[in-house]
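Record filed below.
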Amino acid sequence: MSFVIGGRPVASRLVAEMPAFVRQVLAKITERVPAYQQLPGEELAGDITRVIEQTLRAFADVLRTGTLPTGEELRFLRESAARRAEEGVPIDVVLTAYHVGIQVVWEALVPDARPDEVGQVLELNALAMRYLQVVTPAVSAGYLDERQTMFDDERSARHTLLTSLLDGSAKAGPYVVLALHVPPHPDELLPDVDASVAGRRKLRRLRTELERHSREPVLSSLTPDGGIALLPGEDFPLDRIVADVTRSAGVPLTVAAVAAPPSGVAAAARLAREVLLVAVRSGPGLYRLTDVLLEYQLSRPSAALEPLASIVDPLSDELVETLEVYLRRGSRRPAATELHVHPNTVDYRLRRVAELTGLDPTRIEHVTLLTAALAARRAR
């Protein structure tokens, strides 16, 4: 099959005017796709121009024979796409270039069509669409294979560095070590939803948001339940970062943060995990050691731990919950709202606490000891 438009074989015209078509395609691509404007001039004049010409010649063969490309032609396109992936050119930009090339050829040839050539124009259009259907997956496969290889190499390098930092065998940094507790997303709890897929989606959103806040790669060992992440640097707006990551993950995160000098990542990671264990009992949010000093200290083994915890042993679970909420909220009405009971019920329960422990939660001089007793109870 040989398409004829304007009285001339299309394939022959495309080959004969190849330099002009190449210039038009390159100009149109750089005009429509800003990313190509940022490529070095030697690359545009060299590799990119060569790819455009090779692609147009392959398309000319398709127009001449009516046969879609296979084998060598597609391998060339895959290799070209792999080079764009290595250079960091986004895949949508790479694919757009092929569509622009076909558009330039179409716009140059079709206006010359004669009335008796309309049928060939329609057939040519259908063939061009089939050509793109073959080329697009080949280009995508070449690009994505290279990106996967690069990702695997980068992930392996990151994992090696993270492991070395956490076992103390390497020094780098400084870092801010984050220990994260990540509860299930509502989607993970739905009976008709694949919980593992929902969990991975949540984790991907979380990682993406962490990376967005750092100019350098974030080292992490995370699962859908949480884990450790190392932010490279030391001056971060952690409150905003945790708020943004929480919003992206779609679940209330509990995060413990510890700054680590180059030689102290392993120790900082251990401390972050310990702070998280204490903080997770207090509810979602960002915690530093200074936020949980009492609870952290009481979680350490000591002779005072058991006597402290025994102070609240006479209390039922209901009374313990009421006491914890009251001490956290600071007054009876907010506590009643959180507990979904009448304020008088809170008053009654607090009186029972005083009767059973000998310590009145409404007296400021007793609050510290009751708070310590609850922390010791949790630690025990």
In short: The chain has a mean pLDDT of 86. The CA atoms of residues 327 and 371 lie 8 Å apart. The radius of gyration is 33 Å.
